[in-house]
Description:
The protein is 0% helix and 53% strand. It is mainly β. A hairpin with a 2-residue loop joins strand 2 (22-27) and strand 3 (30-42). The two termini are 14 Å apart.
Amino acid sequence: SVIFADLKIPESFAPVIKKNLPVDVKFSGLKNKIFSGEVEGYSSRISADTRSLLTRIKINNKEARSSARL
């Protein structure tokens, strides 16, 4: 299965965000588990309110371990 997470990335990291960029993700409810994923897409502009870039991460959830706890 696949999980999508929408994250607010600080403006200072915006220049390195690109589609298909590999990422490692940890969830607060599963502290000892690291999920591999990639950038699926991102906003075309920085939010003036939060100074962040809305970014969608696609996470492979092969073991289907995180769906019930998130």
